[in-house]
Amino acid sequence: MQEFEHIAPADIEKTSFSIIAKELSEKNISLPQELAPVIMRVIHTTADFDYAESLKFSPDVLEIIKKAILGGADIVTDTNMALAGINKKTLSRFGGEAHCFMADEDVAARAKEQNLTRAAVSMKKARELSKPLIFAIGNAPTALVELCSLMENGFKPVAVIGVPVGFVNVVAAKKMIMKSGVPYIVNEGRKGGSTVAAAICNAILYSISKEKS
Prior knowledge:
Layout: H1 12-26, H2 36-46, H3 51-54, E1 55-57, H4 61-70, E2 74-77, H5 80-85, H6 88-93, E3 98-99, H7 105-114, H8 118-127, E4 133-137, H9 141-152, E5 159-162, H10 170-179, E6 184-187, H11 194-212
């Protein structure tokens, strides 16, 4: 029977990050200092070290997102799971809110009428918000495709966190975002998910809080 190490509840996360740092070192993986908090939190969330190599960041994207959050930008996501995972209390300290429109009745009706996914229609609805917007997409590649279409027609989000998981159009949609000109954080390949999208948002929020403390 495997022996369990007793760790105080308050120390579990700290110990986990120490283990991650140690294993990264053992794998001869050195993370850029400014990106390490995001990458390590994603690894912490998934227990998957592949993210150390597959997460891609456009130039200065973290500073762009941090500046927007400090200015009260909102976050829009494509699942209620990601919405639940984002630390909304911390976001609200800077004047921002988190949104997910996937379960809205009008989104469901428009999706059926237009033969589109609810994810795509929810991106259209998000465009109607008046505040600067950061998109955190963890499930639906159609959300990324719709964002690209909206951007081609003049829509300018602050940044797109594009980490949908799956097999159908996932890789292609991520590549579209990386070529769109929008600041991005994208996980190459099939891996991702709502928990990854939320982890990236939280890593940035916690970094801002730490810098402001």
